[in-house]
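QA checklist item 7 of 12: single-chain prediction sanity check.
[x] sequence parsed
[x] length recorded as 221
[x] structure emitted
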Amino acid sequence: MDTRTRVALSTALTLGLLAGCGDDTAAPAGPAAGGPAPQATGEPWYDETTPASPGGTTGGTGSPCPVPVSFPLADGWTAKAIEPPKGELAELVGEALTKRGGTTVRCEVDGRPAGGGFLRIWAADSPTVTPRAALESFATGAEETIAGQQFRDLRAGGFDATEMTWLATSPLTEEESRNWALAVQSAGQTLVFAVNEGLITERTDVLPAYRLAVRGLAKGE
């Protein structure tokens, strides 16, 4: 599959074409706890960004986001399972849309109704990969040119976590965007929570929901 086709397919995922139905309607979560105090204002971490107001929770068995953690949803954002494509195009586009750098996408939190973007949760295919290694592979797994990688260790809710930020340049549009991702280990899985700026989203659209989610991480059922 050539680069142009892969970029087009990735764009399709960005638009949520593979998102399933099944919004999570759990009761609103309390204030997120366990997050680090702001320590790096401005580029690239923007820790001064205030987490979004919570409007529910998701995660755990039976939820639209079947991962072994739970986390708060930003008000107006909804969790949807990502289902592999079916039919004639499944073999062609399946991995291009659901696999990235040794991870498989598990669900998507859609903030478009609230004027935001997307938060996606990926699970590492190897149960032994460390959070940092999972992030490094994830960042380089989209056939983009990446630069300016930075890492830090922190607490994310009830977990020790590693966070990464980097700049990615699309080979098709040559547009540069900033990405943020955080990885934790729970119940034998390494999970990656990822957001990015895009052509129609800015950091103020995605960071509040991302900060809320990762600072409120707890063990799922």
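[x] summary fact logged: The two ends are 39 Å apart (CA to CA).
[ ] second reviewer sign-off
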